[in-house]
């Protein structure tokens, strides 16, 4: 019974994510979402309370699953800070660049910046994963594997900004890269490995102290 309840909630969240991404927060309605999910309004309201509650639940599900992964990487004492960051980049690219629906949802709502309280809650949820990345970089600075003068905020901006540019400006990115980045085969076989390699080479050159003996 409990599994059925969880599966039902996940199904509603899957449908809500797509509807919110396609129509935006203002254009979507709980009635539309309940209809597409094949559930009644009473059930949707029981699980999520309101449209805002449903909207935030979509974000929290995606972000929290990645946060657990980042925390596990960050707490692995067998890995150096650079190895941790490299693994974070691999997982980040795998999970985020391919998930255009969720990325479109984030970009649409955060960039509009017109719903103060809701936007603040979204930013708060997103910052959880930013903090996990920051901890790994600061660990590298503290133990000497990374240069002492590293600009941590700009490293984080580079990681997230590269993704934002590619995902949120697909037409321009496709022209620059020379291929339609929305083509699934190209994304899986060429774009994702290319982005991983680029980000790791770029950040390693900036971060890693060549005189550190712990590498």
CATH architecture of the largest domain, by name, is Orthogonal Bundle
Helix share bin: over 70%
User: SSE string, helix = H, strand = E?
Assistant: HHHHHHHHHH
Mean pLDDT equals 86
DSSP helix count?
Answer: 10
Which fold name is given in CATH as the topology of the largest domain? Tetracycline Repressor, domain 2
By DSSP, the count of extended strands is: 0
Shape: globular
Query: Which runs of at least 5 residues are low in confidence (pLDDT < 50)?
Result: none
Class computed from helices, strands and strand pairing: mainly alpha
Total domain units: 2
The largest sheet is: none
CA-atom Rg in angstroms: 19 Å
Measured by DSSP, the beta-strand proportion falls in under 5%
CATH class of the largest domain: Mainly Alpha
Termini separation: 50 Å
Feature tags:
215 residues; Tetracycline Repressor, domain 2; 2 domains; mainly alpha; globular
Quick summary of this structure?
The protein has 215 residues and is mainly alpha-helical. It folds into 2 domains: 49 residues, Homeodomain-like (Arc Repressor Mutant, subunit A), CATH 1.10.10; 151 residues, Orthogonal Bundle (Tetracycline Repressor, domain 2), CATH 1.10.357. It is built from 10 helices and no strands.
């Amino acid at each position: 019974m409990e599994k059925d309840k969880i599966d039902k909630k996940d199904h509603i969240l899957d449908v809500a994510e797509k509807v919110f991404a396609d129509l935006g927060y203002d254009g979507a309605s709980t009635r539309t979402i309940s209809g597409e999910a094949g559930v009644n309004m009473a059930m949707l309201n029981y699980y999520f309370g309101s449209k805002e509650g449903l909207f935030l639940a979509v974000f929290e599900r995606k972000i929290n699953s990645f946060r657990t992964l980042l925390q596990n990487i960050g707490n692995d004492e067998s890995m150096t800070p650079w190895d941790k960051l490299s693994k974070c980049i691999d997982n980040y690219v795998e999970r985020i660049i391919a998930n255009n629906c969720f990325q479109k949802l984030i970009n649409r709502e955060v960039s509009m910046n017109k719903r103060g309280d809701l936007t603040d809650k979204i930013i708060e949820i997103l910052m959880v994963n930013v903090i996990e990345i920051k901890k790994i970089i600061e660990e590298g600075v503290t133990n000497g594997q990374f240069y002492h003068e590293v600009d941590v905020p700009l490293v984080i901006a580079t990681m997230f900004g590269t993704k934002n540019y590619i995902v949120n400006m697909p037409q321009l990115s496709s022209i620059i890269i020379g291929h339609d980045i929305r083509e699934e085969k190209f994304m899986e076989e060429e774009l994702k490995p290319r982005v991983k390699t680029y980000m790791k080479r770029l950040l390693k050159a900036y971060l890693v102290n060549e005189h550190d003996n712990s590498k």
